[in-house]
Amino acid sequence: MSTTAGVFNETTLRTIRLVADAIMFDDRIKQQYIPKIDIIAAVQSVQTANILPTPARKKDVDVEVIWQNVCNPACEENVTCVIGGDKSSTNAQEYALSWERVINFSEDEADYIDNEFNIETAIAKQLLVADKTLVECFAQYVVANLNTFSGTNVFTGGKGTVAGNITSIAAAFWDWTLFAYFQRVGILNRFTNPIFLSGSNFYEQYFLSDYKRLNADGKAETIFDRMRMYFDLFNIDAVNDPDLYTYLLSQGSLAMASKFYNPTTPERTFEFIRYTMPSRFVPGFTYDVFYNDECTTNDMIQHNFKVKLKADIFNNPEGCEAGNTGVLRFLCA
Length: 333
What we know:
Largest sheet: 6 strands, antiparallel
Distance between the termini: 63 Å
Structural class: alpha+beta
Radius of gyration: 25 Å
Number of helices: 6
Order of helices and strands: HHEEEEHEEHEHEHEEEEEEE
Strand content: 25-35%
């Protein structure tokens, strides 16, 4: 039974959710709603921090992020009866999420009087597109923050030229043999189980390597298997245009979180109804949704929505070595 009064109630909301689920199970239809957010998957693959939501959902402090570092202990000579040493460090830091975007849309019942589609399907598709658009927008924000988080490469030899937080590598070196250099960089910077994240840099070599595995002349291409590889052809190059950047990310270096303020059950205020909606594309992300209605043509109802995402990405505030942020940036010069 619905606990909210008005045209838009829990029954209607449940119907819309079921329609959205049906769309996402239809392989033919869902293709137009799948976002281009490979960079978010890459960041989630290195996230080890615990994200603790603030108990009071309407406070300014949004989340508490807990990072744990276990640094390399000193190798010492034995001293009789001396036991114990350095502790692991646990860093708890509170963050107010700074990134917020919204999608607004409307659907009018009058438009569906002589239409084969129904308004519930239209609203479901609008909500899916809002989800897709907001996470794609956030993905570009992630790219910009990776540039900000970039630390200094301690390995100044090999094929890279280090200047500040950018390591430049001549375009002539960008073939499969360069991957040995990236392996070396990860080791010397003490990265834990690093991942390789790129836009168009290396994409074709990596793609073709799968087709060369059975070719005796191309077996060396399996070197790519030595590190987890992620490519985002839509966001990394677009944000950095005209520069082409590639990143190495250490395990535990990054974390993402979202924050919602609305109740999970639809709640009526003086002017609108508010509730929450989980993202279908980014696990852990939740939207605040706002709804109201108005009278339109021939006493029909127009349904108005706002979908809001409040989220952020964080860099490990304190690692085992000063200046080691767990993020390195490489430029195809």
